From TrEMBL:
This is ROK family protein. Gene3D superfamilies: 3.30.420.40. It comes from the Bacteria. InterPro entries: ATPase_NBD, ROK.
Length: 322
């Protein structure tokens, strides 16, 4: 391939890192997946951070070895990001106020002898930004990306802008929708969060709790649902009811015209989407009704969003110097 300008993009997940070298026109010149080490509380998730730093440095070196110029780096991670200080708190990575941005700058500087612009952002917001720029939310000004995976968080587009809330916005999965004896303790410390009933992890956990039978994740629960298993049907109905509550609340507050559902559960297709559409429609009165569609960028959404954010930073820096 001919040498060109690229950005390094990395989407750090709990089990895998999805990485790429992306040109200004959006072409992914190189993509790869690397394992994320198991997080260990005893070292504050240091192994995960070291693997991330190594990945970013090696991708930059690969780009330069092929004659490309690295304009910027985009890294997206789960958890709560303090945008002012560049620190991250992420339970599944064992990070508590970890100075990820400063560590990235130091690693790149040590490897290359100079700094490049680095964007650190939330993985779901990055995925939503990619869907907004070139996916299922393109052409909207008020919309939401809601991936349903191990956890639940939302990327919110309001009046044409991605809402960050200084790194705290979009934690819809930690809104309380389950009450009374049905409420379960969430990892965040609150009882009855949406994530405890409607995430992919919750489906498997709740099915096992009902039946005593261990299942191979949400995928097997959906297979049992298709086969007519009544316990799978009840777990699924509980998840749908909570999701409908969440979508109605969000619609009432923010008035999106389109909601794109992503994550592993969207693989259920219309088994998921049609009940959500019908449930939301039945509950709305005066509110503007949103389209509810499947996200289209799949597992690459976070990495592509990281690349788009990195290019935005590179262009803004260049214009600021002009």
């Amino acid at each position: 391939m001919d040498p060109c300008e690229v950005v390094v993009a990395v989407d750090l997940g709990g089990t895998r890192m999805k990485c790429g070298l992306v040109a200004a026109d959006g072409a992914v010149l190189h993509r790869e997946t690397r394992p994320t080490p198991r997080a260990d509380a005893r070292d504050g998730g240091r192994a995960v951070l070291d693997a991330l730093l190594e990945t970013v440095v090696e991708l930059g070196q690969k780009a330069r070895a092929e004659g490309h110029r690295v304009r910027a780096i985009g890294v997206v991670v789960p958890g709560v990001i303090d945008a002012e200080h560049g620190t991250v708190g992420a339970e599944n990575l064992e990070w508590v106020g970890t100075p990820v941005l400063a560590e990235l700058h130091a690693a790149v500087r040590a490897a290359d002898g100079h700094d490049v612009p680095i964007v650190l952002a939330h993985d779901v917001r990055a995925g939503g930004y990619a869907e907004f720029r070139q996916g299922a939310l393109a052409g909207t000004t008020n919309s939401m990306f809601l991936p349903l995976g191990t956890g639940i968080a939302a990327a919110m587009i309001v009046d044409g802008s991605l809402v960050s809330g200084d790194g705290y916005a979009g934690e819809l999965g930690h809104s309380k929708f389950i009450h009374g004896d049905a409420a379960e303790l969430c990892a965040c410390g609150q009882w009855g969060c949406l994530e405890t009933v409607a995430s992919a992890a919750a489906l498997a956990r709740r099915y096992t709790a009902r039946t005593g039978r261990t299942v191979d994740g949400a995928r097997e629960v959906m297979e049992l649902l298709a086969a007519g298993d009544p316990d799978a049907a009840q777990v699924w109905q509980d998840a749908l009811a909570a999701l409908i509550d969440a979508l109605v609340l969000y619609t009432t507050l923010v008035a999106p015209t389109r909601i794109a559902i992503g994550g592993g559960l969207v693989g259920a297709g219309e088994t998921l989407l049609q009940p959500l559409r019908e449930g939301v429609h039945a509950r709305l009165t005066f509110q503007r009704e949103p389209e509810i569609v499947a996200a289209v960028l799949g597992e690459e959404a976070g990495m592509l969003g990281a690349a788009l954010m990195a290019w935005d930073r590179a262009v803004a820096d260049e214009e600021g110097q002009a």
